[in-house]
Design brief:
By secondary structure, this protein is mostly helical. Helix content is about 70%, strand content about 0%. GO terms for molecular function: DNA binding; DNA-binding transcription factor activity.
């Protein structure tokens, strides 16, 4: 990799790092390119060289954040054997990774009438990552006969909606206090999809 390319990538990463901090602290609407320029030490020209505008910069940050979310899950999933274990695992993963620093800013961008439809769509498309993760786990459970044969798309939506609803509690309660509730939600969910149904889950108590 030549020096010019290395410097360009280093500059881009540094701008993204400082922008992420500002978006997290001030929100999307209250953060300007001028703010990012001042915080990063790079001119607005440098920033516009790498990013079309503030909107594109934020979308790239949101996409990176979701990539990080998935990489963290992959690391945790690698030590879980059964689909049942993975469901409990993803529940706790969602709990501890819901309060993403950029979440509020993303909501601001999505609700801003000046935002381009393309950018808003890209943000909404990020929801595909956790939903596809849930579906993969459920499919594994059906394939290895842990779970009944059922409507995977419906199960995925139900699980995602349930976990998403519980995540609203993270705004007012400590995460460790919510762990038992998230585990209980998975236990109740499993009762409706596991073969035999209503089995006690030993894994949760390990």
């Amino acid at each position: 990799m030549n020096k010019r390319r290395y410097d360009s990538e280093s500059t881009k990463n540094e701008i993204m790092e400082r922008a992420s901090f500002l978006f997290s602290q001030k929100g999307y609407n209250q953060t300007s390119i001028r703010d990012i320029s001042k915080a990063s030490g790079y001119s607005k020209g440098h920033i516009y060289y790498h990013f079309k505008n503030k909107e594109q910069l934020f979308v790239l940050l949101a996409q990176k954040s979701m990539q990080d979310w998935y990489k963290k899950w992959e690391a945790k999933e690698s030590v879980l054997s059964t689909a049942t274990e993975k469901l409990y695992g993803i529940g706790i993963h969602v709990l501890y990774n819901y309060q993403a620093p950029l979440l509020k800013s993303g909501q601001e961008l999505a609700s801003n009438p000046k935002s381009s439809p393309e950018s808003v769509k890209k943000l909404y498309d990020l929801a595909v990552v956790p939903m596809s993760t849930y579906r993969t786990i459920l499919q594994k459970g059906v394939d290895n006969e842990e779970f009944k044969t059922g409507n995977l798309d419906e199960w995925t939506v139900l699980l995602g909606t349930w976990l998403g609803g519980l995540c609203q509690l993270t705004n007012t309660q400590e995460l460790n206090v919510l762990e038992p509730m998230f585990n209980q939600a998975i236990t109740i969910f499993l009762r409706s999809i596991k073969k035999g149904g209503n089995e006690n889950e030993d894994w949760i108590n390990r």
